[in-house]
Amino acid sequence: MSSNFDIYQVLLAPVITEKCTMGLEQANQQSFKVATWANKPQIKAAVEKLFNVHVQEIQTMNVQGKNKRFGRVLGRRQDWKKAVVRLKEGETIDFFAK
């Protein structure tokens, strides 16, 4: 595993949807929007270092951008990559800490 990448460039944002929240509650999974060039070892290293947790499994998928209309112009949203990270039992990442 190479260490010539910045963890803040790998993880772009958490994906917080109804489906991702169900995955968090049922299977201890958390979803992230990641850089399109990032691979599984880089994502694992970034999550473990940034949130101080242990990653058990990672699934990645390329999400196609939707076709959208911007006024009269037909356009397309950007393609992006999503990573579903399964944490070890008993560990959590809390984005809504008070």
CATH class: Alpha Beta
CATH topology-level name = Alpha-Beta Plaits
Range of helix content: 25-40%
Distance between the termini: 36 Å
Number of E-state strands: 6
Strands side by side in the biggest sheet: 1-2-6-3
Oligomer: single chain
Approximately how much beta-strand content do the residues carry?
Answer: 35-45%
Radius of gyration: 15 Å
**Which series of helices and strands comes N to C?**
HEHEHEEEE
> How does the major sheet shape up?
4 strands, antiparallel
Mean pLDDT: 90
Show unreliable segments: none
Shape: globular
Query: What is the H level of CATH, i.e. the homologous superfamily?
Result: RRM (RNA recognition motif) domain
How many domain regions?
Answer: 1
Looking at the overall shape, the CATH architecture is: 2-Layer Sandwich
Structural summary, described in words:
The chain is α+β, with helices and mostly antiparallel strands and 98 residues long. The chain has one domain (7-87): Alpha-Beta Plaits (2-Layer Sandwich), CATH 3.30.70. Helices cover 27% and strands 36% of the residues. The chain has helices spanning 7-10, 18-27, 40-51, and strands at 11-14, 29-34, 55-63, 67-70, 73-76, 80-87. The chain starts with 6 loop residues before the first helix and ends in an 11-residue tail after the last strand.
